[in-house]
Amino acid sequence: MKILSYDIESTTGSHSDASMCTFGYCIADEKFNILEQRDIVMRPYTRRYEPRIKLHYDKSFIKAQQPFPFWYEEIKGLFASCDLIIGFSVSNDVDFLNNACQVYKLDKIVYDFVDVQLLHKTVYKKQNMCGLEGVANEFGIEYLAHRSDEDARVTLLVLKRMASDLGLSVDELLRRFHITPGVNSQTETFPCTNGTYTKKEINYLINLFIEKNRRHSRRYKGGLSYKSFAFSDEIRYGDIDLYRKMIKRIYDLNGRVGQIENSNHFVSTQGEFTDKEKKSLTLRNEGRKRITPITLEKMLSMLGELPNIDFSSDVELVKQHRREVRKKREQARLERKAQFEKQREKKQG
Questions:
Q1: In contact, 28 and 6? CB cutoff 8 Å
Q2: How would CATH label the architecture of 199-303?
Q3: Could you state, in order of their start, the residue ranges of all structural domains in the chain?
């Protein structure tokens, strides 16, 4: 795996005037060995220089360089050649690059990206976002601030430190903290997001997994045959990986997973229930078929050794799901707008 860390400096700080003047990058392998580091200096489209902006290079030197179109194909090739794109507060850099492409009438560079600033906040449970200089001081990293390639190098070292602190690979780190990469496509840009998945997203992953693993017919009797299990919300949403491993094992043993209404066993952590679960259990037990509460500990003893399953595809699945949700929302919005316009024309006519 090749990692591209990049950073952009601007003469004005604006995302709308093609003021990008440096594109710095650092390429590393999966073990964070730096393969290449470079700072590309270019003449900005705008002539304005904001005094408060700190630049590493002299204005006269910047003005003497080639403009962005001269470097476009080379920069585009860097993104295409790497497997993971990272940056620190990277949404700003995404906007700078997109703006330059727009001003010079060039195609947007398409890529997915991870925001290391957001990851740092998530991993160390910071209340607010931290600046790169502050994080560098925290980790004892020395560098030349406001030089793009150096900012890119430090961003890479920050990611390395987080992975090292937790003893995880980069992929494992992103998955552990539910980091969904941002998307920069030709038509739209979605930010990198973090944190626990929403309940709807967890349900989406669970339902996909159940659909993939359920048995549509009983091939034999025995094991957990004729047993069906419902799980408490605490288990379902508390540890989705453990929950899915139990689901797989249950189906392997010829059991089934369902809701309280159609199950004969209800699994909770310590035999405790929420008010909603108590109500569902009461209604279930008022019928002809009763449900038996069991603890998670007993459930695990019934299942034996759980399968070892790789859930690394979760990030991509959630990313695709979010795209679909946004697309449906946008489609619904356009339909409402069209309906409103139609009604207004009818009134005016």
A1: no
A2: 3-Layer(aba) Sandwich (3.40)
A3: 2-190, 199-303
- Are the C-beta atoms of residues 54 and 31 closer than 8 Å to each other? no
- Residue 254 backbone zone (phi > 0: left; psi -120 to 50: alpha; other: beta): left
The residues pairing with 193 across neighbouring beta strands, listed in sequence order, are: 180
| Tens digits of residue pLDDT in 120-155 | 999 998 888 999 999 999 999 998 888 999 999 999
Interatomic CA distance for residues 344 and 102, integer angstroms: 36
Using alpha carbons only, what angle is made at residue 75 by residues 3 and 114, rounded to the nearest 5 degrees?
Answer: 35
CA distance 236 to 209: 13
Measured CA to CA, the distance from residue 109 to residue 98 in angstroms comes to: 7
Query: Whole-model pTM above 0.70?
Result: no
Instruction: Give the class (CATH, top level) of 2-190.
Output: alpha beta
Sequence length of the chain is 349
pLDDT digits (tens, 9 = 90+) for 287-323: 667 788 888 999 999 999 999 998 878 877 887 888 7
The owner of tokens 């949403």 is 237
Are 237 and 277 a contacting pair, CB within 8 Å?
no
